[in-house]
Design brief:
Keywords: Signal. By secondary structure, the protein is of the alpha+beta class. The chain contains two helices and three strands.
């Protein structure tokens, strides 16, 4: 029972708005982060920089305009 519960919890966590989750997503729109021209994730994606917190656990990230790492262009 404990293994199936932890497996279900793992699947739920990886499908949430993370940088590279199971499904492609654009993050979560929260008004305070959108005012900073950013999106909320469980950690910033490659090519995004951390700006602030969204509701204590999410990270508000904005796209980098300069010095973009080459990993952004990988498939």
């Amino acid at each position: 029972m404990r293994h199936s519960l932890s497996g279900l919890l793992f699947l739920l966590l990886i499908s949430l708005p993370s940088g590279n989750g199971l499904f492609g997503n654009d993050g979560v729109e929260i008004r305070t982060c959108t005012a900073l021209k950013g999106r909320c994730f469980f950690g910033c994606r490659v090519g995004w920089k951390w700006v602030a917190f969204c509701h204590n656990i999410l990270s508000c990230c904005t796209k980098m305009e300069k010095n973009i790492p080459p990993q952004v262009k990988e498939p």
